[in-house]
Specification:
The protein is mostly helical. It is built from 8 helices and 5 strands. The protein has a 3-stranded parallel sheet with strand order 1-2-3. It has a two-stranded parallel ribbon with strand order 4-5. Helix 7 links the parallel strand 4 and strand 5. The longest helix is centred in the middle third of the chain and has 19 residues. It is globular. The two termini are 33 Å apart.
Length: 181
């Protein structure tokens, strides 16, 4: 095992987070059409993640979109299974809005608080983590998270290639610019 994955007590160390989004979010970003009514991420991936992570003896954090969780009753059961298997369930807003930081304060608050409460109702556990859609975070969002008792935000994505990444998104999005934090 690589040294970077082992702490000083020789225990396995790993940090995996998953932005759990259905394909229609990516398709919309790229100007492609993909049926929003599909439930492919929940139908095909949750149990695979649980099995893979169990096989590797690791836990993950899953940033979930409220609208996707509510799409089908089985989705709520899948979220419950994630939590019961020791994975963290975290907030990724209700509708995954693009340019989230440009929303009104109240809309940002509604997106965050509604999703947090729903996830807590499903898992019976306090939601303590948040990631903004496209890493698009601002001070108002941080204030909302602090007031709501969140322990951390995971929306900062430091990257040496940030300018190149922005250019690629600009080209892929066919001129429709979307903000990334």
């Amino acid at each position: 095992m690589r040294d970077s994955l082992v702490d000083t007590n020789n225990r396995k160390m790993c940090n995996i987070s998953v932005d759990f989004e259905d394909l229609h979010f990516y398709s919309r970003t790229l100007g492609l059409s993909h049926q929003e009514k599909e439930n492919s991420a929940y139908d095909k991936a949750i149990d695979r993640f649980i099995d893979l992570f169990q096989l590797m003896d690791i836990k993950g954090t899953f940033f979930l979109i409220g609208k996707d969780v509510l799409k089908a009753k089985d989705n709520r059961e899948a979220v419950r299974r994630l939590s019961e298997n020791g994975h963290e369930v975290a907030n990724h807003t209700m509708t995954h809005p693009f340019n989230f930081s440009r929303y009104s304060y109240q809309k940002k608050k509604d997106e965050i608080l509604e999703t947090g409460k729903m996830l807590e109702d499903i898992t019976g556990k306090k939601v303590s983590g948040f990631r903004a859609p496209c890493y698009d975070i601002d001070e108002e969002i941080m204030d909302i998270l602090q007031e709501a008792g969140y322990l951390y935000d995971s929306s900062v994505f430091p990257c040496y290639y940030k300018a190149l990444q922005q250019l690629i998104y600009l080209l892929l999005c066919k001129g429709k610019y979307r903000r990334m934090g």
